[in-house]
Design goal:
The protein is an alpha+beta fold. The protein has two domains: 253 residues, Conserved hypothetical protein from pyrococcus furiosus pfu- 392566-001, ParB domain; 114 residues, Conserved hypothetical protein from pyrococcus furiosus pfu- 392566-001, domain 2. The chain contains eleven helices and 21 strands. Strands 1, 2, 3, 4, 5, 6, 7, 8, 9, 10, 11, 12 and 21 form a 13-stranded mixed beta sheet that branches. Strands 15-17-16-19-14-18 form a six-stranded antiparallel beta sheet, sandwiched between helices. Strands 13-20 form a two-stranded antiparallel ribbon. Helix 4 packs across helix 7, helix 5 runs antiparallel to helix 6 and helix 8 packs across helix 9. The radius of gyration is 21 Å and the shape is globular.
């Protein structure tokens, strides 16, 4: 018995619909610009209120626009239907090892968020409930899932990696390819029912699965009462974790140094630009000055309580600045945006403070999750990202 299943009714892109996931952007204007340049991008369906012709509408008001866009794309041949398939997935780029995954459906009732909650799918981060509500509303309006939850196979990852590498090598011409904003090529192949599909499904479901990307989408499946959710099951050898930084806007930072000292932090002003630090230190950039900061650990706290991202959330944002993690003045900025971009946002006056944090390691990520502990929200930026809009699952 496996928690992984074929997609009963899939829609496979014929090209041009691939997109970054809706939560990969530091600025909503980027979403509008991408849709304007490529109206067939799945972003126009997933973020309908950001499409140029829908600007000014709320997310809820723009849902009928999303329904119409998806219907038009199915009608014009942007997607082709397939029955009871899994989809092979390979991501390649010069100088990088190939990454592999399997598009499939996974049982929602297997999601576990704590040690006393049974299940083989472990969700690891806090979420923003407003985003979850949007995903529920979109799935209900469309009757279709457009973006996958990225799941890390922790039990049989090596076997799955080898099997997917062999399967894609022998699969012939891809059903579709898509090049993302980083230059990586995403290729997919549909795999119908048969012994090879059975083997890959068994391997994909052969151990505990950790949510690497898509915490909101997985909770939306639970909240919306979906029996299964769309996923890409990948392998530890296929992913890396990049920094996940923060920008703080519309908040005076003149007294930040004193506020941090009062909160128990150690601060050293730097003579170089702020950069991604080593684990155990954060770096800040404000008013043209850079600082290395060691935040005080929580006495008696566990490993998760004293992760850099947890200390930033509790000490810097909470104790020093008085901000809740969900405050709209905080922007969570993933690893696609380098340190110089963050500093540039501060220099340009679009933010007052840049917070640079060392990335969580894949090993730490897996260990925390298998112990059924929870990471702070927005603490892992996995790469490469699974593209939305390549494989859809009709509900």
């Amino acid at each position: 018995m496996t928690v992984v299943h074929p997609i009963t009714r899939a829609w496979i892109t014929t090209g041009g619909t691939g997109a970054q996931n809706y939560d990969e952007f530091a600025d909503d204007a980027e979403i509008t610009a991408i849709i304007a340049a490529n109206p067939h991008s799945a972003l126009a369906v997933e973020m309908p209120h950001r499409a140029p012709e829908s600007l000014g509408k709320t997310f809820a008001e723009a849902l009928p626009d999303a329904v119409a866009r998806l219907a038009d794309e199915r009608a014009d041949g942007s997607y082709t239907p397939a029955e009871r398939v899994v989809v092979l997935y390979r991501i390649t780029a010069p100088g990088e090892p190939a990454a592999y995954g399997l598009w499939c459906m996974v049982d929602t009732d297997q999601i576990s968020t704590s040690a006393d909650e049974p299940g083989l799918v472990i969700r690891n981060e806090d979420v923003f409930i407003a985003k979850v509500r949007e995903r529920v509303a979109l799935a209900e309006a469309l009757g279709t899932l457009l973006s996958p939850v990225l799941l890390l196979q922790t039990g049989r990852g090596d076997e799955l990696h080898a099997a997917l590498a062999a399967a894609t090598e022998n699969a012939g011409t891809p059903a579709a390819t898509d090049v993302d904003q980083t230059g990586r090529t995403h290729a997919i192949w549909t795999l119908p029912a048969g012994p090879q599909q059975d083997e890959l499904v068994a391997l994909a479901g052969g151990g505990e699965l950790v949510v690497a990307d898509g915490n909101h989408r997985s909770l939306a499946a639970q909240t919306g009462g979906l029996p299964r959710f769309l996923a890409v099951v990948t392998t530890p050898a296929s992913v890396a974790i990049q920094p996940y930084n923060r920008l703080v806007s519309e908040l005076p930072v003149h007294d930040l140094r004193a506020q941090l000292v009062a909160a128990g932090a150690q601060i050293e002003e730097l003579t170089r630009p702020a950069a991604i630090p080593a684990k155990g230190t954060i770096e800040l950039y404000a008013e043209g000055r850079a600082y290395a900061v060691v935040l005080p650990p929580r006495p008696g706290g566990g490993d998760v309580d004293n992760l850099d991202h947890a200390l930033v959330e509790r000490v810097l944002l909470g104790d020093a600045l008085g901000l809740d993690p969900g405050d709209k003045r905080i922007s969570y900025v993933g690893g696609d945006y380098p340190a110089e971009w963050l500093r540039g946002e501060v220099d340009a006056g679009r933010a007052e403070l840049a917070v640079l944090i060392a990335p969580v390691t894949v090993e730490d990520f897996v260990a925390v999750n298998l112990a059924r502990q929870k990471l702070p929200r927005k603490s892992t930026w996995f790469t490469p990202k699974a593209r939305g809009g390549l494989v859809l699952a009709q509900l």
